[in-house]
Amino acid sequence: MIDLRNIETFFWVATLGGFRAAAEKLNATQPAISQRIASLESDLGIRLFDRDVRGIKLTGKGQELLSHAERMLQLRRDMQEAARAKSVMSGTLRLGVSETIVHTWLPTLMEYLHDTYPALMVEIQVDTTTVLKTQLASRQIDLAFLLGPMEEPRIENLYLCNYPLSWVASPKLKVGRQPISLKRLGEWPVITYSSTTDPHRAVRQLLQQAGVDAPRMYGSSALSVIVRMALDGIGTAVIAPVILRKELTQGELRILDVKAPALPPLHYTACWMQGPDSQVPRTVAEAAQHIAREEALRHPAKP
């Protein structure tokens, strides 16, 4: 009889690309991983991996059997989920989050998870979408809330929310009569998201199309930096007003009336890898979608 543990080991060695990574994933030693693969190959009467000095790769038969292994593990996961209530969902979820979500509804989600799934531990990492995509693809995180969707095989996407972008400035910055032209805005630095992001590229393109040949743009992956520089009157900022409720209410910043096409909104998506261990990420993503919708109803985002 084939040991399901050996099938699980085969799946993770193939998916993660090596014995060491699979050993870390399964909390086992490398010799134990090697022994399980050898045992499975003996039971099946075939070689699953070719080994050389460069590492390992699946044989043709191994590649063919990988999808069968994944289905068997998914069936086990489905059976486990059917046998227990949601309230006992446990383990550790590695969650990657874009910073805008941290400043909107992430605390509400964490409170919900704490109350509903007390046995579930969540490790949170805040980073840019570019970094989160890389970490998700390499399975360094299990679930990501990022600017999406991700157009990659084996990635599941679930829409979360949209946040419009606006031009904002401190009253310290004497922008003059409004509506104001992009050409006029080009006289000051523009503070916005980092240069690797779609919003940064969209702002630069708008300014260049308006005749600002070499726009001065200060990009940052930290929202606190963008807000601080805008408050200090260093330049105008392009940012989602949803995170500026206090500054706008107190008059420290104001939304500018700009004669320009609307900027594309921030489109946030929950992303996770398909696979036999995807039930927890999917459940948390669905909870996040519900909470994001409730947040949008309570506080409609306005450009």
TrEMBL record:
One Pfam family cited in the UniProt record for this chain: LysR_substrate
Transmembrane domains' residue ranges: none
Alphabetical list of InterPro entries matching this protein: LysR_HTH_N, LysR_subst-bd, WH-like_DNA-bd_sf, WH_DNA-bd_sf
This protein's UniProt keywords: DNA-binding, Transcription, Transcription regulation
Domain of life: Bacteria
HTH lysR-type domain location: 2-59
Keyword Transcription regulation carried by entry: yes
Single GO MF annotation: DNA-binding transcription factor activity
The keyword Nucleus is annotated on this UniProt entry: no
Stored Gene3D superfamilies: Periplasmic binding protein-like II, Winged helix-like DNA-binding domain superfamily/Winged helix DNA-binding domain
Family named by the database record: Belongs to the LysR transcriptional regulatory family.
Protein name (database record): LysR family transcriptional regulator
Species, as recorded: Alcaligenes xylosoxydans xylosoxydans (Achromobacter xylosoxidans)
